[in-house]
Design a protein that fits this description.
By secondary structure, the chain is mostly beta strands. The chain is built from one helix and ten strands, in the order αββββββββββ. The two termini are about 30 Å apart.
Length: about 200
């Protein structure tokens, strides 16, 4: 529902007299690193920092505004916080729909841009089941994917090169996960940091 509402706003923004024509923007690649919230420490994640790669599409709406749809992925390994347990690879895939706003002035060709958006995060386990050898016997555990709605805020410093644009980007991803503890399961807020480079190209 949030994504649909934001999309409606994006489509309405350029309406009206004097609106600039919509221009397609392709993001063939984005790459950088992702640092997870300390929430993941208890899961036995071997590293909270991992390389991240992504791609996306966007369109210029005029008046310094741009809409963007992007997808990215990163991964790590976990022992589930157990002393003796098999490891599993955790693949984090996220997509986001965002509205970007550009500062009208630049400095030596460099410009500033901010963004707000919503999205969806999926944690997928590989393999999707593990076997634990305990004193009570062998226990098989299924590992279904975990999904969470996300919000994001981002800041970019960018420079144009003809039809291409390179952006240095920092983004913060906000969401909540159900975490089991001694007092039971409760929703726990998390904030991840993503940093890297984004290449955007206008094919027309």
């Amino acid at each position: 529902m949030r994504a649909a509402g934001l999309l409606g706003v994006l489509l309405l923004v350029p309406a009206g007299a004097g609106a600039a024509p919509i221009r397609l923007v392709v993001e063939p690649v984005s790459f950088g690193v992702e640092r997870l919230d300390p929430l993941y420490d208890a899961s036995g994640l071997q590293s909270r920092v991992a390389p991240r790669i992504g791609a996306g599409l966007g369109c210029d709406l005029g008046h310094g505004l741009q809409a963007g749809l992007a997808v990215g992925t990163a991964s790590g390994t976990t022992t589930f916080g157990l002393l003796v347990a098999p490891t599993a690879r955790v693949v984090r895939t996220d997509w986001s729909l965002e509205l970007r706003g550009r500062v009208p002035h630049d400095l030596l060709g460099w410009k500033l841009q901010g963004a707000l958006g919503v999205g969806r995060l999926r944690l997928g386990y590989h393999p999707d089941h593990i076997v634990l050898d305990t004193s009570a016997g062998v226990i098989a555990v299924d590992l279904p994917p975990v999904d969470a709605w996300t919000r994001l805020a981002a800041a970019e410093v960018l420079h144009s090169f003809g039809r291409a644009e390179v952006a240095m980007r920092c983004a913060w991803r906000f969401y909540a996960l159900d975490v089991a503890g001694t007092a039971g399961t409760r929703a726990t807020d998390a904030v991840d940091l993503q940093a890297g480079l984004v290449i955007r190209v206008s094919p027309f």
